[in-house]
Specification:
Strand order of the largest sheet: 10-9-8-3-2-1-11
Number of domains: 2
Largest sheet: 7 strands, parallel
CATH superfamily of the largest domain: Glycosidases
Oligomer: single chain
Helix content: 25-40%
CATH class of the largest domain: Alpha Beta
CATH architecture of the largest domain: Alpha-Beta Barrel
Number of helices: 14
Radius of gyration: 22 Å
Number of strands: 19
Shape: globular
Length: about 425
């Protein structure tokens, strides 16, 4: 499978239609496209857009991941025509549009259950699921090969309407052989589709496989997907920011990715999304927030912004009720900083990366990293601590430009002072 390495220069913007605007509709979302365009992002990723089941709902309105009908649009968001108009206008702005697909389970009152009860997982003769707290869904059973063809045809349908990619919910819990089959079938007519796997945390994989269920590791998932989540390291970063662990385990995890994943692998560098706390709520100071955010864009991988992150939102909206995101800009400097990071990501040095290295173990709370490509090199320094630090660098003594601030940075006696994030690009 040919890797879509061009994605290294791009940024994904995640949208929960229900809570992104006051109206929670595609029509209202269209009005926000000019603002999102100003951010410079390339790909819009929408949480599930299908009708939500009514049986066993969580909250008043239910989870968008409790799918009732794979072929319909959630009437909360508007009509199919509204969605198609949104796609058309998003494309006119230069965006690609990805939708969230939930192929592991459905709501208990799904149309698919009425049509094909044989497609479902049964435990002791009753419909069920393998993750107990997912009480509002029932699992599908991929031992039935007819289910494979049903899902492939459904994916072709949405691709035919102009969808540019899929974010696959809990993809490792669905047989890898199915994903490889689906990819083969859709690549014939839609070779440019972007495939993003919500890969899951290592402990989740361990627990499910110990119980005799399917749960694939990240390394396996690259045979069918272009991009994976970085949940394999996220919890280590979170633990560090909460003061519960040193920085080293997280850095070791990132090094493991470089050493063990396939050549040209892609990870989205998400420091927040709808399943995690807001990154601004984890960072003790604005300076730490800027450093963590800049590091996420510097890394080998795809940029990622969850709607509201650009305005330093601290509240994590619930999936189950109306809980609107406040997109009013309260800190213009930070908003402009996010725009700058998205723009920086497009620099050719981040495209074809030949090497990516982390220097040191982060004992001084500073991440020092270098990457090299055919067009040059980039050097990043990110202070996640509370005090300015002086760290060693491989850069020669002299003056350099920090591309994030357009200010001079001095290397003296092989050392550099770091407070605000520093990124130096040598071409």
């Amino acid at each position: 499978m040919k890797r879509k390495t061009y994605l290294r220069n791009q940024t994904i913007y995640q949208i929960y239609v229900r809570n992104h605007t006051a109206e929670g509709t595609f029509v209202a979302l269209i009005k926000d496209l000019p603002r999102i365009k100003e951010l410079g992002v390339d790909i819009l990723y929408l949480l599930p857009i299908h009708p939500i089941g009514e049986i066993a709902r969580k909250g008043e309105l239910g989870s968008p991941y409790a799918i009732r009908d794979y072929y319909l649009i959630n009437p909360e968001h508007g009509t199919l025509e509204d969605f198609q108009t949104f796609i058309t206008l998003a494309h006119s702005y230069g965006f690609k549009v990805m939708i969230d697909i939930v192929l592991h389970h459905t709501s208990p009152d799904a149309e698919l259950l009425a049509e094909h009860p044989e497609f479902y997982y049964y435990k002791n003769g009753k419909l069920g699921n393998k993750v107990g707290d997912w009480s509002d869904i029932i699992d599908l059973d991929y031992n039935n090969r007819d289910l494979w063809d049903y899902m492939v045809e459904m994916l072709k349908y949405w691709a035919s309407l102009g969808v540019d990619g899929y974010r696959a919910d809990v993809a490792p819990l669905v047989p890898l052989a199915f994903w490889e089959y689906a990819r083969q079938e859709l690549d014939e007519d839609y070779p440019e589709l972007i495939w993003l796997s919500e890969s899951v945390e290592p402990h989740f994989i361990t627990n499910l496989t110990a119980a005799g269920h399917i749960a694939h590791h990240d390394k396996e998932m690259y045979s069918a997907f272009d991009i994976l989540y970085d949940y394999d390291v996220y919890n280590d970063l979170k633990a560090y920011l909460e003061g519960k662990a040193p920085l080293k385990p997280y850095l070791d995890g990132v090094r493991y990715q470089e050493q063990n994943y396939p050549k040209g692998y892609l990870k989205i560098r998400t420091i927040e999304n709808h399943d995690t706390v807001r990154i601004a709520s984890l960072c003790k100071t604005d300076q730490i927030l800027r450093n963590v955010t800049a590091w996420s864009f510097f890394q080998n991988g795809v940029g990622f912004i969850y709607g509201g992150q650009e305005v330093k939102a601290t509240h994590r909206p619930t999936l189950f009720d109306i809980d609107k995101i406040d997109l009013n800009v309260k800190d213009q400097d930070y908003y402009d900083f996010m725009i700058l990071l998205v723009e920086m990501k497009k620099h050719p040095v981040f495209a074809e990366i030949s090497s990516f290295n982390i220097i040191g173990d982060g004992a001084d709370d500073v991440i020092v990293s270098t990457l090299e490509s055919r067009v040059g090199a980039a050097h990043g320094f990110f202070n996640l601590g509370l005090k300015e630090k002086e760290v060693k660098t491989e850069l020669k003594d002299g003056s350099y430009t920090n591309v994030l601030t357009n200010t001079d940075i001095v290397v003296n006696d092989g050392k550099i002072k770091v407070s605000e994030p520093i990124i130096i690009i040598e071409e």
